[in-house]
Amino acid sequence: MASSSKNPRLNPGSGLPGPVERLVSEFARLPGIGRRTAERLAFHIVKSSTPEAMKLAEAVGEVKRSVKHCAVCFSFTDDRLCSVCADPRRDASTIMVVEQPKDLIAMEFTGMFRGVYHVLMGRLSPLEGIGPGDLTVAALLRRIDDPKTNARETPVSEVILALNPTLEGDGTGLYLASELKDRRVKLTRLARGLAAGSRLELAHKAVLADALEGRQEMP
Length: 219
Hints:
Helicase, Ruva Protein, domain 3, Dna Topoisomerase Vi A Subunit, Chain: A, domain 2, 2 domains, two-stranded antiparallel ribbon, 7 strands, disordered N terminus
């Protein structure tokens, strides 16, 4: 009998059929997913019924076809505007600046903030070659300078910096503060109830609520 290493349908490095090995490899490319976790996920898919497995495939396909960035704040949406920017009950004169959509979700979970958001889609990191042009900084400044580009064409009165308390987050905050200092808006940042080096998405909602409530004006 020929050994499995000579079978073209098997990956000689793992002994898995080629399609399964490919699925494991794709799962392993996801953030926070190691090889063993990727194998468990792949084996779960293999053991699932075809309809169950196809639901996952269809959900991934639908996300890639329909989800895009909000035309105003750059959060994720399946429409032109996200649910926050489109909500007439939100105070569009107050913009909270966050790094990623997951930070927006964490802040919304507190139920404390009734303004709108702006998602930078990252933070400044010179060592990684990420500069202002790689973020949505220009769009944020445009919302402040031209109310017509803000949600419901509302003039902006306050910008809250809700960036992660890391070296890169602080550097991004200082850059934005310098860009906003000559603009007629109140500039504040979340209180430092957040531990240095932590991330908004992992903070308890009570900690985020306290940080929002105790926000401080930027010098």
